[in-house]
Write a structure and sequence with these properties.
By secondary structure, the protein is mainly alpha-helical. It contains three helices and no strands.
Length: 71
């Protein structure tokens, strides 16, 4: 989730009374991958086809002709 959306969502929460946009901007550094899992970053311009291909590849199913996903 982007910084601007994070700030908008935070403003609607009770915790926004304790700290505001300035603090969020200090803390926010974008993507924070989990240290115990090899995560893949998905950019905002990735297409659905790109995502499906990446998932199938991660599962070892990308080149399997017997598997098919119908939209």
């Amino acid at each position: 989730m982007g910084l601007e959306k994070t700030i908008r969502r935070h403003a609607a929460r009770p915790l926004s009374q304790k700290f505001g946009e300035e603090k969020i901007r200090e803390w926010y550094d974008g993507w924070q991958p989990l240290p115990w899992y090899d995560e893949t970053r998905v950019g905002r311009d990735a297409s659905t086809s790109d995502l499906v291909s990446a998932i199938l590849s991660d599962l070892g199913l990308h080149d399997s002709p017997s598997r098919r996903i119908d939209a």
